[in-house]
């Protein structure tokens, strides 16, 4: 497949997203890398971890598979691809009532429904025309923390992704959150270098709503 999908949402919800899920494997190596990531990130909660957490774009649930070992929180997720959701349910990662169908720009939860909403490698796949709405929803449903771990660039970049244009974007996502939401204060941030972590070189930011 080449070119630009007519509808990026359809690409991720359809066969392209299913192929992405099939390429991902919950291997011991992948789970060790996610355990390291959350072990380091969880230190930033400084004794006040979130009790309820929503992952926006969970795919097959690599994060959700390791988070119970590190955070005693009730987990939920929203995911647009049916193949990925089926995998999460079949593997017993989440119960059906806490796994929602959809995209991050329209989350079917009330304001402040969870104490933390987060993305890892998801905002990089959101079309810039939908990025603000997605960030607004993530901010809206969280009562306390917002976390993202994404590919960083000091300026917006669009990259080809598996022969497609319009499906991969780099940006200063932490800066975008800080500029858009004055009620967010930076708690911590960092970089997970692939060479020593096995992760895909993401930069991460943890924010807390002031007064929460």
Query: What is the helix fraction of residues, given as a range?
Result: 25-40%
Q: DSSP helix count? A: 8
Unreliable stretches: none
How much of the sequence lies in strands comes to 25-35%
Mean pLDDT: 94
| Shape call | globular
Structural class: alpha/beta
What is the radius of gyration? 16 Å
Terminal residue distance: 46 Å
Note the main sheet: 7 strands, mixed
With strands numbered from the N-terminus, the spatial order across the biggest sheet is 3-2-1-4-5-9-8
Strands, count: 9
Order of helices and strands: HHHEHEHEEHEEEHEHE
Give the SSE layout:
Layout: H1 8-13, H2 15-23, H3 28-42, E1 52-56, H4 62-70, E2 74-79, H5 82-90, E3 99-101, E4 114-120, H6 128-141, E5 142-150, E6 157-161, E7 164-170, H7 173-180, E8 184-191, H8 194-197, E9 203-209
Parallel strand pairs: 1-2, 1-4, 2-3, 4-5
Antiparallel strand pairs: 5-9, 6-7, 8-9
Helix pairs in contact: 3-4
Notes on the protein architecture:
- The structure is a single chain.
- The chain is α/β, with parallel strands linked by helices and 212 residues long.
- The chain is 35% helix and 27% strand.
- The chain is built from eight helices and nine strands.
- It has helices at residues 8-13, 15-23, 28-42, 62-70, 82-90, 128-141, 173-180, 194-197; strands at 52-56, 74-79, 99-101, 114-120, 142-150, 157-161, 164-170, 184-191, 203-209.
- A seven-stranded mixed β-sheet has the order 3-2-1-4-5-9-8, with helices on both faces. A two-stranded antiparallel sheet has the order 6-7.
- Helix 6 (128-141) links the parallel strand 4 and strand 5.
- Helix 3 packs across helix 4.
- The longest helix is centred in the N-terminal third of the chain and has 15 residues, at 28-42.
- It is globular.
- The N and C termini lie far apart (46 Å).
- The model has no long low-confidence stretch (mean pLDDT 94).
């Amino acid at each position: 497949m080449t070119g630009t999908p007519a509808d990026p949402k359809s690409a991720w919800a359809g066969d392209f997203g299913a192929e992405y899920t099939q390429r991902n494997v919950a291997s011991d190596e992948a789970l060790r890398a996610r355990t390291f990531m959350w072990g380091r990130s969880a230190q930033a909660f400084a004794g006040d971890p979130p009790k309820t957490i929503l992952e926006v774009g969970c795919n097959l649930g690599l994060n959700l598979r390791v988070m119970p070992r590190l955070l005693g929180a009730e987990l939920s997720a929203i995911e647009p691809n049916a193949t990925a959701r089926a995998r999460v349910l079949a593997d017993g990662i989440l119960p059906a009532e806490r796994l929602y169908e959809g995209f991050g720009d329209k989350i079917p939860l009330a304001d402040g429904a969870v104490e933390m909403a987060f993305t890892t490698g998801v905002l990089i796949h959101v079309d810039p025309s939908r990025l603000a709405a997605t960030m607004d929803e993530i901010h809206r449903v969280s009562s306390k923390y917002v976390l993202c771990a994404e590919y960083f660039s000091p300026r917006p970049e669009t990259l080809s992704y598996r022969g497609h244009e319009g499906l991969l974007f780099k940006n200063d996502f932490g800066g975008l959150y800080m500029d858009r939401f004055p009620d967010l204060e930076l708690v911590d941030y960092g970089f997970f270098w692939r060479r020593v972590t096995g992760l895909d070189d993401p930069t991460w930011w943890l924010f807390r709503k002031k007064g929460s």
